[in-house]
Design a protein that fits this description.
The protein is an alpha/beta fold. The protein has a domain at 118-284: Orthogonal Bundle (N-(1-d-carboxylethyl)-l-norvaline Dehydrogenase, domain 2). 56% of the residues lie in helices and 8% in strands. The chain has 15 helices and five strands. It has helices at residues 14-21, 46-54, 76-80, 94-104, 117-139, 144-164, 169-172, 175-186, 191-200, 205-211, 218-231, 237-247, 252-262, 267-272, 276-284; strands spanning 5-7, 31-33, 67-71, 85-90, 109-114. The protein has a five-stranded mixed beta sheet with strand order 1-2-3-4-5, with helices on both faces.
């Protein structure tokens, strides 16, 4: 009989898959989720979806079951080759978190514990949104400076949302936050960054999604993030501009130009801001 369940189902399919397997899930068996995303219909994160599916419909309560999320900079093909990686496991049950830590840690795979499961799952989901935007910059050949600026302001943006939702700021400046964000935005094989790059080169979204194997979580997550920003009244100009590019027909160059000019808030950034239109026109000349 199972002692632990690892859920690796893409976020938008978690509810349907777990609804089918629910009759076969032993009571009380703990679950570790490795998915990164936000369900668009409910705005729930992966462990919240699992908990919702497994709750007792008669009492509207959950059976005693520990849930955890594993997240961090972990490119799949590097993990398959056992290259060094470090991630975080978050759970409200820290005894369970430490058990997962011990179970998953190897000489090349290091796991840290974190009590902030809301922050960890939110960071893992929202970084995919920023990665799509970063990929658009790659497609537009905007350069490393513009991309690094986007990452910096993107991190501030997703951290603001996290704080509004009760997450801890430290999570966004750790492995599951800035660590995973940097990896996703610069990895040449990442689906979200690749999606953005193809959009930046003029491809249509439907053609891009058809060409990329697997699920590009950043696309549906963008919808969810914009809804959460509205719900919690958080200013998220990057995510909002990307939403316009993905779903409202805005040209990627115009969209990136808007978000790069809208994101800066401090004088030190604003005085140094250069028009992205100028940068791109020079690189493409």
């Amino acid at each position: 009989e199972a002692e632990l369940i690892v859920s690796a189902v893409p976020t938008q399919y978690i509810r349907s898959v777990w609804s089918r397997v629910k009759p076969h899930v032993p009571a009380g068996v703990p679950v570790v989720s490795v998915a990164k995303g936000i369900e668009t219909d409910t705005l729930l994160c992966p462990t919240q979806i699992i908990a919702d599916v497994l709750k007792n419909p008669d009492s509207n309560t959950h059976a005693t079951r520990s849930l955890a999320a594993l997240s961090g900079p972990s490119v799949a093909d590097e993990l398959a080759r056992c290259l060094p990686a470090t991630v975080s496991v978050a759970s409200r049950d820290m005894v369970f978190a430490r058990q997962v830590q011990q179970l998953f840690t190897t000489h090349w795979f290091r796991v840290y514990t974190n009590p902030d499961i809301i922050g960890l799952e939110l960071a893992g989901a929202t970084k995919n949104v920023i990665a799509v935007a970063a990929g658009i910059l790659d497609g537009l050949q905007a350069g490393v400076n513009a991309k690094s600026a986007l990452l910096s302001r993107g991190l501030a943006e997703i951290a603001r949302l996290g704080l509004a939702m009760g997450a801890q700021a430290e999570t966004f400046f750790g492995l599951a936050g800035v660590g995973d964000l940097a990896t996703t935005c610069f990895s040449p094989t990442g689906r979200n960054r690749t999606c953005g790059e193809m959009l930046g080169k003029g491809k249509k979204l439907e053609d891009v999604l058809a060409a990329i194997p697997g699920v590009v979580e950043g696309v549906p997550t963008t919808k969810a993030v914009v809804q959460l920003a509205q719900r919690y009244q958080v200013d998220m100009p990057i995510s909002t501009s990307l939403h316009q590019v993905l779903f409202e027909g805005l040209d990627p160059l115009e969209g990136i130009s808007r978000l790069m000019s809208a994101a800066p808030r401090s004088k030190s950034w604003g005085n140094a801001q250069t028009s992205l239109n100028t940068i791109v026109s020079r690189t493409q000349a």
